Amino acid sequence: MTGTDDGTKDGPRGPARASGPRVPAPWVRTRLRAAPAAALALALLVALTAALAAAFPRAVDRYEDAGLRRTLDDASPRRTTVQFFAPRPDAELSLEDGENALREAALRKGYDAVLAAVDKPLVADRAQSSYGVRTSDPTDASDSFLARPSGLPPRVALVAQNALGAHSRPASGRLPRATDPVTATTSEVEAAVTTETARTLHIKVGSVVHVPGLERAPLAVRITGIVAPREPDGAYWMSTPLIRQPSLIQLPSDGGTYWIGALLLAPDAGPVLLGTPGKPERYWQVAPDTSGPTAHDMSGLASAVAALESGPGLARIRERVDPLTDATTDLDEVLSSFTELRSGIAPLVAVAAFGAGTVAAVVVLMASGLAAERRRGELALLRARGGSLPGVLGRLLAETAVVAVPAGALGLGAALLAVPHARLSSAVAAALAVTVLACVALPVRAAFAHRAVRVHGGREDIASVRPSRRRTVAELTVLVLATAAVAALRRGGADADSSGGSGDQLVALAPVLVGVIAALVLVRLYPFPLRRLAGPAGRLRGVVAPLSLARAGRTSASTALPLLALLTALTTAAFGGSVLAGVHTARDHAALLATGADARIEATHALPTALPGRIRGTRGVREAVPVSVAYRAQARRGSGTAGETAALVGVEPGPYGQLSRELGLGGFPARTLRAAGPGGGSSNNNGSGSGRTVVPAIASPALADRFGTAPFSVQLEDDSKVTVRITAVRDVTPAVTDLDFLLVDREALTRRAARPTALLLTGGHLDGAALRRAAGDGVDVRLRAEVRTAYVHSPLQSGAERIYTAAVAAGAGYAVLALLLALVRAAPERSALLARLRTMGLTRAQGRRLLVLESLPQALLAAVGGALTGWAAIRLLAPGLDLTAIAVAGRPAPGGTARLRTDALSLLVPSLAVLVVATGVALAQAWWTGRRGSVRELRAGDGR
Q: How far apart are CA 682 and CA 667, in angstroms?
């Protein structure tokens, strides 16, 4: 016997195996080890996309918060402070109770009640908030040492405000005190004044100001100190500017003037105001903390302010302080101005965000499609060997999640570090959405591809795959959505609804939907002309042209996804580039209209005779055109008719007409303002200003409509007259802005009226400091570049422009990545084709031409289609888009509404870049395939 009883063979045995069932290798670990490069590429894509998605809302939050803080800081504390005031205590109270109500302890109690009524997110700045008692009606101070500009005595207000010592430092003397309890009958109190009040009203330490009494002797107010505010621009001083600096008042009747100032009493000296006729009132001033509010708190801020003005907050204050307490503030108007600016800018940023987000999502889907294509045989084999669809999908989800979840978390962390101090929730939601998309894209793609068990798949080129009814319905649905979005935008504008609802999102998606429709239509149509061209190309010598056309016409049906990414990116880039170009153009045009040239030098009086020569000698000045402008000239048809105010501009027809033509602001030939001589409507200046000679004039449309071509008289500010006849009409002119104007030859005016009051300068790189030194004092110098810079005032503008540029750049980067993914997906099949053709005698040069010509139709389709869809989106959506908010931020700017216009560079440059990248990748692939040789590509069964 050579065996044992159990039938096994005798002989040497190897190491004993452990008993028990065999443990298979973990699926996820095995798959990651089998394709580490693919896992790393997916991780990088998810991390980058998650970082960008998480950074976007945080960046928007940051510039919106900065814009809100700038708006609050630019507004004066008098507008942003919420002021509560109550009249003197009820007359039915005893005198002692009325005095106690004006003491600091009672006012402090009311102050605490006011602060308790302030609801979040509105937070009070306790350091700048204040309370006290004051006379609401300043009374005359008849002391002779006080300043009297026109002989009228000054008027003073008595103010007893808390924490005077904490907000000022003594410049001389000391702070006022109330050593004994002050009552309504106290004969003398101490007070302080600010340095500006002391200098203006001629008050010194030790001065005694007498204030009229009410049924008593005048109150003597002894000045014990002159104080300097520690924060003169803070809300403590500027909520009531009178306590910091006096105000000069002019009487409307006779033009007399007098000063109004404030005397700052000790905080506990309020009861003495009851003995004056100044109508004392208690007040509590709540200064908001401008560093705390954020833009996403706007609705809560508005509600909190409304509650204090006339809502539940004011009701609680009246219940705890005084039933007659009232409130006033302009903070609601300040917040409303910010909301209007943000609502005008947000839709434009949303367009870029939706465009870049769509392209990024398409790239993630393409990456999953590439992975599914690479593993098609493996997954088909698993299904053929009995693998259930849920089991296979679960394993795909697990192996993708192992890579995508840490990558998404890494991208989120990078975004939080790169863009700090913003909301966390929106960033987490954006990164989570990217991570979930990356995790489910491959399983969902595999579920559709392998829901039925197949061993061999059929052809999937466009020649054999006919669009299904579901696809047709989906495309029609997208078409309806795009049409609705475009119609909504054209009808109501991008900022018609600032609520951020679904209608706004549909409008923001309009450029993307236009690109989607174009992609779906082009994918269906473009193979037909290629097949038409394949026949004539087949009669040409050589095989490269007909073969490339034949292959381009039978491209895989999955071309729709990369074409969608390219068209969406190109449409968004063209739209975004046109928006940015339109913003810059609007600012340039507004600055040009505001200055009339590259720079403007102007005075309210005639300029010195030597000034034009000095200005022409300044570095950078090419030409200086003098003009005389009478802004309040009166044009009338007859002596008995009412005059119409217009700006009469005296110009030198030659230089001024050339300047107007160069700037595109109503240019005209010099002969328009010149005439042949007397009797022919000429000007014959004799310096008398009699107005008997008819002078040719160029008028604004409104004046031309009123006066027609008949002569009429114009009276200048120096009472000289000139008779003019309108010979031409221009909408704008460099010399004046937003005014009706008449242009005449300076020689037709009197010598006094013809003296230049302004110089219009042209040139490059003008030096503002040098121009101001040359112009001297009393002359206003404005540079076009400085005016343009002033239009970019709010961080909302600059931040939105940066976000828009970054979103467009990110979309372009993802579009290039989509193009590369599409070419990488086709690379193995193309390499195998080149290898086979080279065995048939195809040269390397012919192989390069074949790959370039094969990829060129799709790239050309994307480039031309992207340019056309971008142009169509701009033409369709331009009537509903207003760029004024992002261009000039609500500042007064001439030129009217800034509309979106097509920018040629924004249309052509991205399209040309697509062609260059596609050609470059095809050449690189041909070169790499030639270096590798043909043996590996021809091995049977190699998965490549």
A: 21
Phi, psi of 914 (to 5 degrees): -60, -45
Q: Contact, 836 vs 829, CB < 8 A?
A: no
For the stretch 490-517, pLDDT in tens is 665 554 444 444 455 666 777 777 777 7
For the chain, what is the mean pLDDT?
80
| Closest listed residue to residue 547, CA positions, set 851, 924, 819, 827 | 851
Better-predicted residue by pLDDT, 848 or 940 = 848
DSSP-derived secondary structure letter, 638: S
Task: Tell me what pLDDT residue 711 has.
Answer: 87
CA triple 610-612-617, angle to 5 deg: 100
Backbone angles phi, psi at 190, to 5 degrees: -95, 155
Are the C-beta atoms of residues 548 and 853 closer than 8 Å to each other?
Answer: yes
Which amino acid is it at 526? Y
- pLDDT above 90 covers a percentage of the chain that reads 19
Is the Cβ–Cβ distance between 562 and 522 less than 8 Å? no
Give the separation between CA 894 and CA 738, rounded to whole angstroms. 7
Give the per-residue pLDDT at 226: 94
- C-alpha separations of 569 from 562, 800, 862 in Å: 10, 19, 10
Structure tokens at 25: 């290798």
d(CA 725, CA 716): 16
What's the pLDDT band for 2 if we cut at 50, 70, 90?
very low
Higher pLDDT residue, 537 or 239?
A: 239
Q: Hunting for tokens 């907050």 — which residue is that?
A: 313
* Secondary structure (3-state) at 877: helix
Nearest Cα neighbor of 899 from 663, 666, 579 is 579
CA trace torsion 902, 903, 908, 910 (10° rounding): -100
The pLDDT of 852-881, averaged and rounded, is 78
Confidence band for 780, pLDDT divided at 50, 70 and 90:
confident
CA distance 884 to 341: 10
Instruction: Please identify which residue in the block is written with the tokens 């690109």.
Output: 515
Strands of 151-229 (E only): list them: 155-161, 168-173, 188-194, 208-211, 219-229
Nearest alpha carbon to residue 665 among 737, 612, 724: 737
Count CB neighbours of 297 within 10 A: 17
Q: Look at strands 644-651 and 741-745 and give their pairing.
A: parallel
pLDDT surpassing 70 at residue 10: no
Angle at 923 between CA 918 and CA 924, to 5 degrees: 100
Residue 547: name the closest of 560, 562, 563, 530 by CA.
Answer: 530
For position 81, what pLDDT does the model report?
A: 92
Length of the chain: 944
